[in-house]
């Protein structure tokens, strides 16, 4: 499982003209499931998303987590993160979980994040063409792999 996280002051995801998820200060996480992702990996990713220290403390150091600041989380499924780009000029998606496997993994991650998060947890729409807008704070961006 992969998650590209970005610290944001705000973010939203739209499907067509409909806003399906919007957050204030917090994290935008673009998430890709890989074949065989397990329940323990899902739980570890949820904990990492909520506890990864990317927010400034009083001294200006990245020492506070999303959980500590009670920030918002916007989870967006993005299978292209798992692409194999090692050869050629076209990505291969054989390393991404197929939709029938990926959707329950993503839904379980969403449920776990909602269970442990003190802030709002919003999402996009699985398998939809989405428009994601964000204001990256920093910019601060990390790739997490579980």
UniProtKB/TrEMBL annotation:
It catalyses: glycyl-tRNA(Ala) + H2O = tRNA(Ala) + glycine + H(+); a D-aminoacyl-tRNA + H2O = a tRNA + a D-alpha-amino acid + H(+). GO terms for cellular component: cytoplasm. Its main location: cytoplasm. GO terms for biological process: D-amino acid catabolic process. A Gly-cisPro motif from one monomer fits into the active site of the other monomer to allow specific chiral rejection of L-amino acids. An aminoacyl-tRNA editing enzyme that deacylates mischarged D-aminoacyl-tRNAs. Also deacylates mischarged glycyl-tRNA(Ala), protecting cells against glycine mischarging by AlaRS. Acts via tRNA-based rather than protein-based catalysis; rejects L-amino acids rather than detecting D-amino acids in the active site. By recycling D-aminoacyl-tRNA to D-amino acids and free tRNA molecules, this enzyme counteracts the toxicity associated with the formation of D-aminoacyl-tRNA entities in vivo and helps enforce protein L-homochirality. This is D-aminoacyl-tRNA deacylase. It comes from Solilutibacter silvestris. The lineage of its organism: Bacteria, Pseudomonadati, Pseudomonadota, Gammaproteobacteria, Lysobacterales. The gene is dtd.
């Amino acid at each position: 499982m992969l998650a590209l996280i970005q610290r944001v002051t705000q973010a939203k995801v739209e499907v067509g003209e409909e806003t399906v998820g919007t957050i204030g200060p917090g994290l935008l996480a673009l998430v890709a499931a890989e074949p065989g992702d397990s329940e323990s990996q899902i739980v570890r990713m949820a904990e990492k998303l909520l506890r990864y220290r990317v927010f400034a403390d009083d001294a200006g150091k990245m020492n506070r987590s999303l959980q500590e600041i009670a920030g918002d989380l916007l989870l967006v499924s993005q299978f292209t993160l798992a692409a194999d780009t090692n050869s050629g000029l076209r990505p291969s998606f054989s390393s991404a979980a197929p939709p029938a496997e990926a959707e329950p993994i993503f839904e379980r991650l969403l449920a776990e994040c909602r269970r442990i998060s003190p802030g709002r947890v919003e999402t996009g729409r699985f398998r939809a063409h989405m428009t994601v807008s964000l204001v990256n704070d920093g910019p601060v961006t990390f790739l997490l792999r579980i």
